[in-house]
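Project outcomes to date are best conveyed with an example. Our students and postdoctoral researchers have been running inverse folding experiments weekly, and each run begins with a structure described purely in C-alpha cells. The record below, which covers 123 residues, was selected by the lab manager from last quarter's runs and is presented without edits.
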C-alpha cells in the first residue's frame, strides 16, 4: 500500500505576491498558490477596458478568455456581436475573447479572476 501525502496551503490577497497597476483606474493583486495564479482586480468607477486597457495592450476588444467571480460593485460586458450582460456580487462569469467591459455606478468593482485558466472548447 502506498501512502498518500496530504497537504493544505493558503494565501491572502491582503498580502499579495505582487500588486500591478498596468492601467489607469485599476489595480491587480496577484497570488500564486499550488501552481495556480489568481488576480483580485479592483476597478474604479469610470474604468472601461476600451479607454484604460486598450491603449496599453492594443486591439479593438479584449482578446483574453476570463473566468471571474464578482465580489463588489457592478460590471457590464459587451461582446463584439453586441450581446451584453451585467454582473453583480455573487455572480460568476465565463467570458470568451472579443469583448469590452466597464464599471457601472459609483462603487469600485472588485472581482477574483482565475488568471491562468485555459479556454475549454464548448461541449
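After processing, the design step wrote out the following sequence:
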Amino acid at each position: 500500500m502506498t501512502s498518500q501525502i496530504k497537504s493544505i496551503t493558503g494565501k491572502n490577497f491582503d498580502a499579495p505576491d505582487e500588486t500591478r497597476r498596468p492601467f489607469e483606474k485599476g489595480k491587480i493583486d496577484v497570488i500564486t498558490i499550488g501552481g495556480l495564479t489568481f488576480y483580485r482586480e479592483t476597478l474604479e468607477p469610470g474604468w472601461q477596458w476600451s479607454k484604460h486597457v486598450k491603449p496599453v495592450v492594443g486591439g479593438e476588444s479584449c482578446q483574453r478568455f476570463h473566468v471571474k467571480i464578482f465580489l463588489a460593485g457592478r460590471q457590464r460586458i459587451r461582446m463584439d456581436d453586441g450581446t451584453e450582460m451585467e454582473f453583480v456580487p455573487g455572480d460568476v462569469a465565463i467570458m470568451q475573447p472579443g469583448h469590452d467591459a466597464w464599471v457601472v455606478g459609483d462603487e469600485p468593482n472588485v472581482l477574483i479572476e482565475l488568471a491562468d485558466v485555459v479556454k475549454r472548447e464548448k461541449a
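Helices lie at 49-57. The chain has a mean pLDDT of 92. The training component of this project remains on track.
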